[in-house]
Amino acid sequence: MSMESVTGVLVVLVICQVLLCLYAQPHSLMFNRDLGGGVMRVNGGQTITFQCEAAGRPVPTIQWLHDGRRITQEASHSYLDDAAFFERKPHDQNVDALQLGNTAGRLRIFCVTHAHAGHYACVAQTPTERIVSTAILEVALLANIYMWEMQRLEYEGLDVQLFCRASGFPLPRMTWYDRNNDVITDTHDQYKVLKNGDLIIKNISWAKHVGLYRCAALNVFGKDATEGILVSGKTLKYDSWLEYVINGRDLHLATLTTGYNPLKRCSHLSAIAPRRLKIHQKL
């Protein structure tokens, strides 16, 4: 064997020994891809994805936390799965397995809501090390009125609470408009806007309060609005607000049901009684 061949073999052996010594030592756990530590702002209803990658020896596992609590992405998986390894050792017991590798983890959230907002963490760990990468999720939700009072019938002299409930993030600011389309403020003794968005009208009367009221919800991402009708009278019937018109009979309104000019609001009845429609208001 020539000297060049011997030298080449020695070089290969030295390289192999160096690599084996290198792989035999535990490798520091590190992120190849982390969450960046920043803030992610998304609109409600979207699908978002967090992903991180970690390398180490032994091969790390990855789990996810939301506000410090572990997220289980599959109910059938157990926490014990993270520590369970079923690899066989080499036949030569003097040689340890390399167990050097990269692990990727992904957290996908479908149709995000405000409940998903908060601090997220990607946790990579081995039996000896643990590293964490974090991010903050902010979910922007448009102002949305989800319950309101379309019609309200009540006796004069009583107090009335008109519903208007809204959701959104940030929490929407609620504004009410009276029958004259003026903004209702707490400076009016007859009105009070509650924290939940409802409107209290005190000591209602036909002359002052009957009409159309509007409620609006506003945040930085959008606005939603709706309207409702307040009807009052000295004597009211609960069975029916409108009497059906047939065969030439007159139409009797026990109360004003909309706050607008009744002739304009009842124009859709013209197909039923085009020539004999009469309006009667009973106070």
Automatic annotation (TrEMBL):
PROSITE patterns from the xrefs? Answer: IG_LIKE
Which range is the signal sequence, renumbered to this chain? 1-24
Q: Mind telling me which SMART domains this protein's record contains? A: IG (SM00409), IGc2 (SM00408)
Q: Sorted alphabetically, which SUPFAM superfamilies does this protein's record hold?
A: Immunoglobulin
Q: Which UniProt keywords apply?
A: Disulfide bond, Immunoglobulin domain, Repeat, Signal
Q: Which residues belong to any copy of the Ig-like domain?
A: 26-133, 156-232
Q: What domain of life is recorded for the organism? A: Eukaryota
Query: rRNA processing: is it a keyword of this entry?
Result: no
* Pfam families in the record: Ig_3 (PF13927)
Q: What is this protein called?
A: Ig-like domain-containing protein
What is the source species? Paralvinella palmiformis
What lineage is on file? Eukaryota, Metazoa, Spiralia, Lophotrochozoa, Annelida
